[in-house]
Each structure stands twice: as structure tokens, then as C-alpha cells.
């Protein structure tokens, strides 16, 4: 590198004449093996790489020598370690001592941001006690590890972001983790199979997400004054469990919530529980059953199940200040709907229902995901056209197997037999056939993204 620069500059090494801080930036942007080789370029460079905060991504290293190279770099570089990503160096049960040494080095040499994956198919290895006390870590992402069984003081005292996937943890350990991390702002769980009651008690937590996991018995926001975003998606029912309680006790700053699922979530606000009960009447809102701060709400509903339609209304009444609403239409299960009311019954329900505060006077933007143009979905849209006053745009993302072109969409609107709906649709409708949006976990964890569901 320096030799090439010198050859083009009359034999003078221009790069080595750069200030140290610029050279450090150059070194930190190089793949780690190239950065290490810079020590051979010139005498000026010999101390640059060892004095530059380490940036290590094992994806840059060739497979046959990857583990040996990582071991050599971790032991040879004096630190600090700025960004370390180890997603391809996997440990088996026989590698506990080897893994513990790497974690000791990562802790001792001031690692700031760490991504550490292990084989999900292997029994998870235990995190060493000295590692979980690491005070330099700001961002940590773990896959397939186990936290120590006992409650230890000083767990990640300066951690701000934590991502856990295939990590074994009891409810008590989760409570202790939140209590022991005074600066933790972002937390997500993926592929969790162990937590039963997730209680959020944190004075610092702002974002929480759980997805691709076994459905817990309860997710409760007990005391989280700064919590802004609460997301859950793709939670699986196992062991006979059919429902999960979502409880909101104290979350004065909650702004984005979803996906609430009308088929599996029981919503508790204060002492009032809105349950999934097919034959129950929908709940009316009262001051004790509302969360006034939520601005973006996402709800999944099967419009073929009348009980879920009523749950949708009950959920909406609990969030009177929502201005952006996401509705995802869940695929109809014929085995459940053998004795469901007729479409006319659904239409009669939407015609007689009393106004929903957020829909009538607040919602300005609505996104309808996986729209199939089912008659029951259409009755809901006619209710929206009749009752919503502030709506400025309705983005419809059709199910890709149902509607494939705008011509088909326009044909369906023209045949709606509802002139008011046709006029309304021409003004606010925006249909994007072939575009599918799902909850993006990276976006949901990004503070710069205003709407994690879009």
C-alpha cells in the first residue's frame, strides 16, 4: 500500500505522512488481516495497528484457518476492541474451555460492540461469570448461550443494546438482568423457548421485541417509564397454550405497539382484561381501559372469525390517540369457521356499531396488510369509509395470491355497489399489488425508523 503510493509520488511515501488519527481510520476500515499486514509497510506503521481499536469480523477470514486466526488476533492485539463479530466460529460442548478463554480476552481487552453466535443445534454453553461483568460492552448480540444459574451482581453495567437468540434464561434471570443493567435501552428475544412470564421493570428500557418464539404466558409492562416501542411477532402456541396475556400497567411513553393478535392475545389494562371469547360482546372504552399515548398500532385479525372482529373493535377502543393503524388480515382457517355468522351478520355489525374514537377523529394513515378482498374485509373498509373523518391515506398491500394487478383492484372497487365507497376509495386508496411487508426486526430495533411495521 505505502510502496504503491510512493511509486506514484516520485518515491515519496505520502500516506505515512498523514496524521495518526487519519491512519487509524484507514486501518480500522480494512479487513482485519490486511490491517495486521500494515505493520510490515514501513517503520511508521509498526505501532499503528496495535494502537488502533480492533475491528474484527470473522466473515472476512478464510474458513480453513478462521478459528486459529481469531485466536491469534484476540491474544495478540492489546485492545481495545471496538467491533467484534464472531458468527462463524462455533463451539461444541467439548470447547467450553476454549470458548471461556476467548470470552475472557474479549472482556479483558475492552470490547465495546460484540456479536457472538454459537450453534443453535448444540447444547448452549454457559457464559463465564467474568464475561457477564464486562463493563466496556455497549452492544451485545448472543446466539445459543446460557446465563449463569445464580444471580450475580454487576451484569453488563454499561450495556445499552442487547439481542438474545436461542438463549436459555429463566423468568427470574430475566428480571435480574433488567434490574442489573441500569443503562439498557434496547432488548430483543428471538427463538426463545424458556420464558413464561416476561415482566418489564426498567427505568431505562425504550425498545422491546420478542419474535420467532414460543408464546409466553404473559408479557407485562409493569414499570417502564421510558418504553417507547413494544413489538411481538410470530409467537407459536405449544403445550396446549392458546392465549398470551399482554398487560400494560405503567408505560407513559409507549408510542408504538404491535402486533396485537385478536386470536391469541388477551389485553389487560389496569385491572380490566379483554379476553379472546368468541361469543362475548366487545368492550367499551373507559378511562381505566385506555393507553392514551400510543400513536402507531398494529393488529392481526381473521375477518372470517366474528369473535376476532369484535376483539379488533375492543382493541381499537383502548388506544384512542392512534394516528397510524396497521391491520394484517390473517389467513382464514376453514376448520374454525363452520358455524360462523354470515357476511350479512358482519355487515349488520359494522352498520350498528358505535363510533370508535381513534378511527373517527385520529387515524390519518392506515395500512392494510395481506388484503384478500374478502367480503368481511370489505365490510370493514365500508365502515372505515363511512366513519373515519381524518384519514388521508389507505395503503392496501394485497395478498400476493389473491390480487395480482391494479386492473383487478379497480374492477372490484367499481363493483362495490357503494357509490360513497367508490368516491372515498378514489381519494385515499393506494394499492400496491405484489408488495409484501412483514415486521422487520432490524427496523424494529432502529431508533431512526419512525414506523417499524412499514
Automatic annotation (TrEMBL):
Q: Any idea where the FBD domain is?
A: 353-386
The protein's matches in Pfam families, at most eight in alphabetical order, are given as: FBD, LRR_At5g56370
Q: Which InterPro entries match?
A: F-box-like_dom_sf (IPR036047), F-box_dom-containing (IPR055302), FBD (IPR006566), LRR_dom_sf (IPR032675), LRR_FXL15/At3g58940/PEG3-like (IPR055411)
**Which residue intervals define the domain F-box/LRR-repeat protein 15/At3g58940/PEG3-like LRR in the entry?**
100-327
Q: What Gene3D superfamilies does this protein map onto?
A: Ribonuclease Inhibitor
**Superkingdom of origin:** Eukaryota
Q: What is the protein name given in its UniProt record?
A: Uncharacterized protein
Species name: Brachypodium distachyon (Purple false brome)
Q: What is the lineage of its organism?
A: Eukaryota, Viridiplantae, Streptophyta, Embryophyta, Tracheophyta
Amino acid at each position: 500500500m505505502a510502496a504503491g503510493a510512493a511509486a506514484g509520488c516520485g518515491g515519496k511515501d505520502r500516506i505515512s505522512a498523514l496524521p495518526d488519527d487519519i491512519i487509524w481510520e484507514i486501518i480500522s476500515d480494512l479487513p482485519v488481516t490486511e490491517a495486521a499486514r500494515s505493520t510490515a509497510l514501513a517503520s511508521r506503521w509498526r505501532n499503528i495497528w496495535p494502537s488502533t481499536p480492533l475491528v474484527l469480523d470473522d466473515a472476512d477470514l478464510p474458513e480453513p484457518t478462521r478459528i486459529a486466526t481469531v485466536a491469534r488476533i484476540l491474544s495478540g492485539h492489546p485492545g481495545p476492541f471496538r467491533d467484534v463479530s464472531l458468527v462463524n466460529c462455533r463451539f461444541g460442548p467439548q470447547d467450553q474451555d476454549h470458548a471461556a478463554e476467548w470470552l475472557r480476552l474479549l472482556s479483558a481487552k475492552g470490547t465495546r460492540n460484540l456479536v457472538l453466535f454459537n450453534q443453535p443445534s448444540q447444547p448452549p454453553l454457559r457464559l463465564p461469570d467474568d464475561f457477564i461483568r464486562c463493563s466496556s460492552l455497549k452492544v451485545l448480540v448472543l446466539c445459543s448461550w446460557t446465563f449463569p444459574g445464580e444471580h450475580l451482581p454487576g451484569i453488563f453495567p454499561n450495556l445499552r443494546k442487547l439481542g438474545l437468540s436461542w438463549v436459555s434464561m429463566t423468568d427470574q434471570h430475566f428480571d435480574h438482568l433488567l434490574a442489573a443493567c441500569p443503562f439498557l435501552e434496547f432488548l430483543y428475544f428471538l427463538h426463545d423457548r424458556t420464558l413464561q412470564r416476561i415482566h418489564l421493570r426498567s427505568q431505562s428500557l425504550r425498545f422491546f421485541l420478542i419474535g420467532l418464539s414460543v408464546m409466553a404466558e404473559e408479557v407485562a409492562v409493569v414499570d417502564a417509564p421510558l418504553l417507547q416501542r413494544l413489538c411481538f411477532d410470530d409467537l407459536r402456541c405449544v403445550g396446549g397454550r392458546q392465549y398470551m396475556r399482554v398487560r400494560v400497567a405503567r408505560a407513559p411513553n409507549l408510542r408504538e405497539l404491535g402486533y396485537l393478535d385478536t386470536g391469541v392475545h388477551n389485553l389487560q389494562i389496569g385491572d380490566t382484561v379483554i379476553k379472546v371469547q368468541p361469543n362475548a360482546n366487545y368492550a367499551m372504552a373507559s378511562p381505566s381501559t385506555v393507553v392514551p399515548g400510543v400513536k402507531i398500532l398494529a393488529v392481526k385479525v381473521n375477518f372470517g372469525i366474528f369473535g376476532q372482529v369484535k376483539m379488533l373493535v375492543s382493541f381499537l377502543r383502548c388506544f384512542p390517540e392512534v394516528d397510524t393503524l396497521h391491520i394484517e388480515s390473517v389467513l382464514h382457517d376453514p376448520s374454525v369457521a363452520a358455524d360462523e355468522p354470515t357476511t350479512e351478520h358482519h355487515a349488520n355489525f359494522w352498520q350498528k356499531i358505535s363510533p370508535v374514537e381513534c378511527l373517527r377523529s385520529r387515524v390519518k394513515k392506515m395500512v392494510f396488510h395481506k388484503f384478500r378482498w374478502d367480503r368481511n374485509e370489505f365490510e370493514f373498509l365500508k365502515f372505515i369509509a363511512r366513519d373515519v373523518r381524518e384519514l388521508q391515506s389507505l395503503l392496501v398491500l394485497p395478498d400476493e395470491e389473491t390480487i395480482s394487478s391494479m386492473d383487478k383492484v379497480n374492477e372490484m372497487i367499481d363493483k362495490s355497489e357503494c357509490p360513497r365507497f367508490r368516491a372515498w376509495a378514489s381519494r385515499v386508496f393506494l394499492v400496491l399489488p405484489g408488495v409484501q411487508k412483514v415486521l422487520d426486526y432490524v427496523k424494529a430495533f432502529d431508533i431512526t425508523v419512525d414506523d417499524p411495521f412499514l
